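Morning run. Coffee first, then this:
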Amino acid sequence: MCGIVGVVSNAPVNQLIYDALLLLQHRGQDAAGIATQAERKFFIHKARGMVRDVFRTRNMRALPGNAGLGQVRYPTAGDAYSVAEAQPFYVNAPYGILLVHNGNLTNARQLRSELFSTDHRHTNTSSDSEVLLNVLAHELDRATRDAKMDAQSIFQAVRQVHRRVQGSYAVVAMIAGHGLLAFRDPFGIRPLCMGTGADGNVMIASESVALEGTLHQFGRDIAPGEAVFVTLGGAVHACQCAENPRRMPCIFEYVYLARPDSVLDGISVYQARLALGETLAKRVISTVPPGEIDTVIPIPESSRPSAMQLAQLLGKPYREGFVKNRYVGRTFIMPGQEVRKKSVRQKLNAIASEFKGRNVLLVDDSIVRGTTSREIVQMARDAGARRVYMASAAPPVRYPNVYGIDMPTAQELVAHDRSAEEIRALIGCDALIYQDVDAMKKAIGGFNPGLDGFDASCFDGVYVTGDISAEDVARMNANRTQEKSATPHDDDE
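And here it is:
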């Protein structure tokens, strides 16, 4: 997952993009980049690290212009350690194009071969985002070869991109001297929305929180398959460029990835997590008699809404039993399993008085590898808990994700080829309660009947693009980022 933003304004945009990236920092902590345009010249600064560390005053001064884009990166393909693979990416022909991308192309290898042998274009990194940029550049060159450069020729190029590219992609691109282009894959797997500021400037971002947090009025989500072109003068043009678009967003966005104060595809992330708590409560009651539970304790932080709702329905006290050290990085970013295991105790500390002599129900948003869950269960026991039950607001994660979440290989997933009882034994809790897949889809989907469904492939193994085989998954695993142990979530945030 990554966070992307683009802005067209009548005033300098460097600070605005910086502020928006801070609001999207949860979507990527590996690298950050901003590019701006002034008088048809691009100015770029990007580096590894978090936003506040990548950009200093001197860097911001070197980013003039009233239009620009930016990205916070979480590596899912390519070299996690290479500054060259930080975004934005740039090509100088035609016109000069900058691009930031959130998602993952499932046919990147085939496209890279086509680019070299047929389109006569060269890619210099292993990033699928660079492949996508070159496909867009090639199609834009074809579309404008015998026509003027305008919104219609740009939309024609995007139509061809949709025909060639497979996978998930939310994109913001800047065409030198012309404007900002944004588009979304035909399934709308990764989120993208737009809004306007008081001075008429237009912002496009991964989540609505980036708009609202920078005092922009949320306008709407960019539809699956749709392209939006914003001229440097602020005129907005939109066109549906996919032949058979379907609104099927990634359900893991609502479970964990997105901020709770965001609204994605018409669904409040916070309300979705409350609904997951309601359905989870029914599963808990059928497994553990409420009389055997003394308190409900969330594992910080994204499980809190579900845990609060669950506690209310069970009629049990909701307690904060773990204190999170916010100055320790997310464990899924850390480069090794042993480092990750050690960091659990560094970033979470148990409040002994909430555990001592009690039967506690721990609630997490999801369980991926299970290593952190095992550590947390042991922490609860060490703090004096009599019995420790574990509930997951999401179903078992049994399958790798290929659409821009760097899930571990199937063999690394604790739920792969294991029953709930086998997982319970590995984690070491007294009872383990999982969310039901259909109940999850119904609970979240009920907030927007206009959706065609969800990509829930990491839970049900159904890849919505219809082009993923077991061989494809194996190949993608072989090409996973060099930071092999990175995972989007190991039972924590």
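Confidence is low (pLDDT under 50) at residues 331-336, 481-493. Good start to the day.
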